TrEMBL record:
<feature type="domain" description="DinB-like">
    <location>
        <begin position="11"/>
        <end position="143"/>
    </location>
</feature>
<dbReference type="Pfam" id="PF12867">
    <property type="entry name" value="DinB_2"/>
</dbReference>
<dbReference type="InterPro" id="IPR034660">
    <property type="entry name" value="DinB/YfiT-like"/>
</dbReference>
<protein>
    <submittedName>
        <fullName>DinB family protein</fullName>
    </submittedName>
</protein>
<dbReference type="InterPro" id="IPR024775">
    <property type="entry name" value="DinB-like"/>
</dbReference>
């Protein structure tokens, strides 16, 4: 398995690729839903961050949500047609940034041994980061499909990493 520092770089690379997929879109394109049973790009952006925070919170450190009002909206347990009105692009961006900072802070504490059971949590952190990276890329695939098929924008090139490959069309970090 990759070291924690290398996985944090892969996490940042995955997030940067997500940004490449949406940052050049208009706010209307980010919040537009192709149909009732589909999610907007903005929902995927919030969901990626929501899952990252939820996983870090529940597996490594209990801490409050950075934006509790978004928790129910960004939960994939809600059927698409009941996911409600999305927040502004700025709020989604702020949420994503705050969650990424928290991921880095908590995983950094684990890597530095500033936690109880540091060896055990290092194992957890490695698997957790791998899951978060692959979850980011999973939703990037869907964002990319809406971007190209529905909105007519080209895809950016895949991220450059020796640890990435495509499986069933999805980018995955392959650390095993």
């Amino acid at each position: 398995m990759l070291q924690i520092e290398a996985l944090l770089r892969e996490y940042d690379r995955a997030r940067a690729y997500t940004d490449d997929l949406w940052r050049d879109l208009t706010p209307d394109e980010v919040t537009w839903r192709p149909h009732e049973n589909s999610s907007a790009i903005g929902w995927h952006l919030g969901h990626q961050a929501h899952v990252a925070h939820f996983m870090i919170r529940n597996l490594t450190a209990a801490e409050p949500s950075p934006d509790p009002e978004l928790d129910a909206l960004m939960d994939s347990a809600n059927p698409e047609k009941f996911r409600g009105t999305l927040p502004t692009v700025k709020r989604l961006t702020d949420f994503r940034t705050t969650v990424a900072e928290r991921v880095h802070a908590r995983i950094g504490d684990i890597a530095a041994g500033r936690v109880g059971a540091p060896t055990q949590l290092t194992v957890v952190a490695g698997h957790l980061l791998t899951t978060l990276i692959n979850h980011e890329y999973q939703h990037d695939q869907w964002i990319g499909e809406v971007r190209t098929t529905d909105l007519g924008h080209p895809l950016p090139p895949d991220p450059d990493s020796e640890h990435l490959r495509r499986v069933d069309g999805y980018l995955v970090v392959d650390v095993l």
